[in-house]
Amino acid sequence: MRADLHTHTTASDGSLAPAELLARATAAGIELLAVTDHDGIDGCLALAGARGGPQIIAGIELSTTWQNAGVHIVGLNIDLHDSTLRTGIDLQRTARQVRAERIAGKLTKLGFRDTLEGALRVAGNGNVGRPHFARFLAESGQLPDEKTAFKRHLGRGKPCDIRSGWAALPDVITWIHAAGGTAVLAHPLKYKLTHRKLEALVNDFRAAGGDAVEVVSGLQDAMVTERIARLTNRHGLLASGGSDFHQPGQHWSELGCATALPAICRPVWQSWDSIRPAR
Ligand code: MN
Ligand code: MN
Ligand code: MN
Hints:
8 strands, 15% strand, 9 helices, eight-stranded mixed sheet, alpha/beta
């Protein structure tokens, strides 16, 4: 199965509109495509009823905090109209807004100008995050490029890397389950946890009802895939895979680059009696 179960659109920090993402996925020969924007479902809603191309899985990538680390949980095959999930999304939106104000406050103290207005303008849809601040700082000429913005101010462990405010791990799993979906621990190696801490995270995730681990995230080394596959199986969890596509031109997260799951894994779609069409 050529499945890509982790992608972004302009509804969060992706550069392609939902219809453009669908066209690109079709051209890439994807059969199963999950749209998983950060803390929002507008991209999925925009594709409701779309015909042709891959089967579309309604999804979301929820931000959460676990032991002071920012962790992402992908929800797959969700009912977009579930009220518990909708309430959760509203909470995340408020948290994102408060966080944006705090990031802007820190950037102002560092001497940057108009960052909240700028980032909101770049985001265009209220779903504002660090990439939008970075793009504004580059576009307004206050920093040479987005990479510098992350390296100096917005990246992991930097002064403007603010994580507080997100819902707790068990809460986001509850929302996903309320919406009939499957909870997936996204890109487990991206958190740069020690071996022992990653083990603890997967343990807590499973204990909270988590269902699957993203065994393949973008282009990755076969040894890495093998390691996460074993970790996943050891905890009795299902396996998912996705490119984490945000924009064309990044070959390490191009649509369809992460479709092959190891044979020892149980793919997440095998647990779905039916695929809930976006509506
Ligand atoms: Mn993103
Ligand atoms: Mn993520
Ligand atoms: Mn993502």
